[in-house]
Design a protein that fits this description.
The chain has 285 residues and is α/β, with parallel strands linked by helices. The chain is built from nine helices and seven strands, in the order βαβαβαβαβααβαααβ.
Length: 285
């Protein structure tokens, strides 16, 4: 579990960021987490599953009995480490390198996962990117479109590819953000996509209720992932998480149990909802 007095040293790295270069390394294994077979025999696809929140979700899903497939962009070393840790839990792990913004990639990941594991029970739409800008005028058309293509188009494409394989009792969990509710002056395009994800989650939940497929979301606050040192300057990294009531950033292992809950039968009567794991920030909606 995280140290309540944790501070981060100033640091930066190139996008999209590598977990192995972070100081300190994010806590993702959930050493204190007690598994109970909540996902025994299930199959899950996790986008952005190589590092950060996605990595921790993959590990805890495996600990709960699920085989997992992860889609990641190009961080091969991070993805390989995630695969190794998943397999240490006694479960199988497939890794796919590719861009979630590419429709054909999404289709291939789903098809190959079902071919290998025989079915699909859980989809975690987690992949995202962000590009802070001090001035709104500096957000280019290309940046705006790229952020939307990864964060919300990718979610749409993965879900459409997965739906033919999802049966009654299946679950979809989407990663939104506290920025969807609070906004962020430096992340206008990112926050806009996260707001779109909230609407997508609620509407899709209503649409799929009659099929017995649940759709929910998780809205993390400031979580220590490779996205942070690869997109903020060193001074802002050193201050990351200090403005929430708990005065620190969260760790991936502190968010991942929310995904386990929403993917499991414990949440059988929960759909169209968003869980806020954000260090005590109070939000509306």
């Amino acid at each position: 579990m995280a140290d309540d007095n944790q501070t981060l040293p100033p640091q930066e790295q190139p996008e999209p960021g590598k977990e192995g270069l972070m100081n300190p390394r994010p806590a993702y294994r959930g050493e204190d987490y007690k598994a109970a077979g909540k996902l025994e025999g299930k199959v899950a696809i996790i986008t952005g599953g190589d590092s950060g929140i996605g990595r921790s979700v993959a590990v805890l899903f495996a600990r709960e009995g699920a085989d997992v497939a992860i889609l990641y962009l190009d961080q091969h070393q991070d993805a390989e480490q995630t695969r190794e840790v998943v397999e240490q839990q006694g479960r199988r792990c497939l890794t796919f390198a590719g861009d979630v913004a590419d429709r054909d990639t999404c289709r291939k990941v789903v098809e190959d996962t079902v071919a290998a594991f025989g079915k699909l029970d859980i989809l975690v739409n987690n992949a995202a990117e962000q590009h802070p800008q001090e001035r709104f005028e500096d957000v280019s058309q290309e940046q705006w479109e790229k952020t939307f293509r990864t964060n919300i188009f990718g979610m749409f494409q993965m879900t459409q590819a997965a739906l033919p394989h999802l049966q009654e009792g299946a679950a979809i969990v989407n990663t939104t953000s506290v920025t969807a509710y609070k906004g962020n002056p430096m992340l206008i395009d990112y926050s806009s996509t996260k707001g779109a994800i909230v609407g997508f989650t609620r509407s899709l939940a209503m649409h799929l209720a009659e099929r017995g497929i649940r759709v929910n979301g998780v809205a993390p606050g400031p979580i220590w992932t490779p996205l942070i040192p690869s997109t903020f300057d060193a001074d802002k990294v050193a201050e990351f998480g200090a403005n929430v009531p708990m005065k620190r950033p969260g760790q991936p292992e502190e968010v991942a149990p929310a995904y386990v809950y929403l993917a499991s039968n414990d949440a059988a009567y929960v759909s169209g909802q968003v869980l806020h794991v954000n260090g005590g920030t109070v939000v509306n909606g």
